[in-house]
From TrEMBL:
<dbReference type="InterPro" id="IPR032942">
    <property type="entry name" value="BPI/LBP/Plunc"/>
</dbReference>
<dbReference type="GO" id="GO:0001530">
    <property type="term" value="F:lipopolysaccharide binding"/>
</dbReference>
<dbReference type="InterPro" id="IPR017943">
    <property type="entry name" value="Bactericidal_perm-incr_a/b_dom"/>
</dbReference>
<comment type="subunit">
    <text>Monomer. Homodimer; disulfide-linked.</text>
</comment>
<dbReference type="Pfam" id="PF02886">
    <property type="entry name" value="LBP_BPI_CETP_C"/>
</dbReference>
<comment type="function">
    <text>The cytotoxic action of BPI is limited to many species of Gram-negative bacteria; this specificity may be explained by a strong affinity of the very basic N-terminal half for the negatively charged lipopolysaccharides that are unique to the Gram-negative bacterial outer envelope.</text>
</comment>
<keyword id="KW-1015">Disulfide bond</keyword>
<keyword id="KW-0325">Glycoprotein</keyword>
<feature type="domain" description="Lipid-binding serum glycoprotein C-terminal">
    <location>
        <begin position="6"/>
        <end position="186"/>
    </location>
</feature>
<keyword id="KW-1133">Transmembrane helix</keyword>
<keyword id="KW-0044">Antibiotic</keyword>
<keyword id="KW-0472">Membrane</keyword>
<feature type="transmembrane region" description="Helical">
    <location>
        <begin position="12"/>
        <end position="34"/>
    </location>
</feature>
<protein>
    <recommendedName>
        <fullName>Bactericidal permeability-increasing protein</fullName>
    </recommendedName>
</protein>
<keyword id="KW-0964">Secreted</keyword>
<keyword id="KW-0399">Innate immunity</keyword>
<dbReference type="GO" id="GO:0045087">
    <property type="term" value="P:innate immune response"/>
</dbReference>
């Protein structure tokens, strides 16, 4: 239980508990809404790594050998329900995802390339400046091959992919979260 402050002047007070946030996360997860497909044409041209086997050869050389310069597709999804917690200093979230990569053949058939589990801890720190709510988002995470990796798929060099994912999230994900969720974010 949380005690709400008494009002001595007109004000709007909004309180959201961890239960409400985690119930929403459960609902989105159960409904399958925490999935996203990313194709090569969705990435900005300036992104340092395009979704093509030629670009991915750094991480899985067998892909370029088997499928020379074919487009790829990523299927991102939550493996488990995200967990959210509220602390006096910040909002914390634990995200449990997977990224499955596919090579797209000329006949539009998708061939599995590799699968990674991606777990991230996200911290959002709201602040009030003047009459505006501001905030920042920070990210810590990692990637690993899922248990039971066998399937005859090429084994990507996970550490290189993890570094690239972190770079991509810091370059695009965190700034996007700051601009979308906290339009007046403090850098």
């Amino acid at each position: 239980p949380a005690a709400l402050p008494g009002a001595h002047e007109p004000m709007l007070l909004v309180a959201i508990t961890e239960f409400v946030a985690n119930s929403a996360a459960f609902t989105y997860f159960t409904a399958g809404a925490l999935r996203r497909n990313i194709s090569s044409n969705m990435l900005p041209r300036r992104f340092p790594l395009q979704l093509r086997t030629k670009s991915m050869a750094v991480f899985a050389p067998q892909l370029q050998e088997l499928y020379p310069d074919h487009p790829m597709e990523l299927r991102l999804s939550a493996r488990r329900q995200p967990l959210l917690s509220c602390r006096p200093d910040a909002l914390h979230g634990a995200l449990f995802g997977s990224a499955e990569a596919f090579v797209v053949l000329p006949n539009a058939t998708c061939v599995p390339a590799f699968l990674l589990n991606i777990d991230a801890n996200v911290t959002g720190k709201p602040t009030v400046a003047g009459n505006r709510l501001r905030g920042t988002v920070k990210l810590a995470g990692g990637a690993e091959l899922p248990p039971g990796w066998a399937q005859g798929l090429p084994v990507p060099q996970v550490k290189k992919l993890e570094n690239l994912l972190k770079f991509g999230l810091w370059l695009f994900g965190v700034p996007w979260a700051n601009s979308e969720c906290c339009p007046h974010a403090v850098p």
